[in-house]
């Protein structure tokens, strides 16, 4: 029903920037909470940035001031701008969507972000 496809990951040096995008199909995102999670090897997925259906944003403490989440409803996409990247930002970044009144969460396939000098 909801398909999410991430793009934009890659290898970047510490202090560099990346922009991740998530394109959704199968539904309209206006009524969804959207966000990005990341998972490092051996760790559970952790929320990084969330944007609610009303546009409210929430960031995990470690990325505040460095990452920015945004959405473009006309294109049915969300993006994550990653600035001032650190090695601890390395991981697979997953896009997710959740309709506020439903329990199910939808996940993208993930895109790898590697921060290394």
Keywords:
117 residues, mainly beta, 4-stranded antiparallel β-sheet, 11 strands
What secondary-structure arrangement, pairings included, does this model have?
Elements: E1 3-7, E2 10-12, E3 18-25, E4 32-39, E5 46-51, E6 57-59, E7 67-72, E8 77-82, E9 91-99, E10 105-107, E11 111-115
Parallel strand pairs: 2-11
Antiparallel strand pairs: 1-3, 3-8, 4-5, 4-9, 5-6, 7-8, 9-10, 9-11
Describe this structure in words.
- The protein is an all-beta fold and 117 residues long.
- It has strands at 3-7, 10-12, 18-25, 32-39, 46-51, 57-59, 67-72, 77-82, 91-99, 105-107, 111-115.
- Strands 2, 4, 5, 6, 9, 10 and 11 form a 7-stranded mixed beta sheet that branches. A 4-stranded antiparallel beta sheet has the order 1-3-8-7, with no helix packed on it.
- The chain is globular.
Spans with pLDDT under 50 lasting ≥5 residues? none
From the alpha carbons, calculate the radius of gyration and give it in angstroms: 13 Å
Number of strands: 11
Provide a count of the helices.
Answer: 0
Helix content: under 10%
What gap, in angstroms, lies between the N and C termini?
40 Å
Provide mean pLDDT, rounded.
95
Question: Major β-sheet, in short?
Answer: 7 strands, mixed
The structural class is mainly beta
Q: What is the H/E string?
A: EEEEEEEEEEE
Instruction: Give the overall form.
Output: globular
Strand content: over 45%
């Amino acid at each position: 029903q909801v398909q999410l496809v991430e793009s934009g990951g890659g290898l970047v040096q510490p202090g560099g920037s990346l922009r991740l995008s998530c394109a959704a199909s199968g539904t309209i995102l206006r009524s969804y909470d959207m966000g990005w999670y990341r998972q490092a090897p051996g760790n559970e997925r952790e929320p990084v940035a969330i944007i609610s259906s009303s546009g409210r944003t929430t960031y995990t403490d470690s990325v505040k001031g460095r990452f920015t989440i945004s959405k473009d409803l006309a294109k049915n996409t969300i993006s994550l701008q990653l600035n001032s990247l650190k090695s601890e930002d390395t991981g697979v970044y997953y896009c997710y969507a959740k309709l506020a009144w439903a329990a199910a969460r939808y996940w993208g396939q993930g895109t790898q972000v590697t921060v290394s000098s």
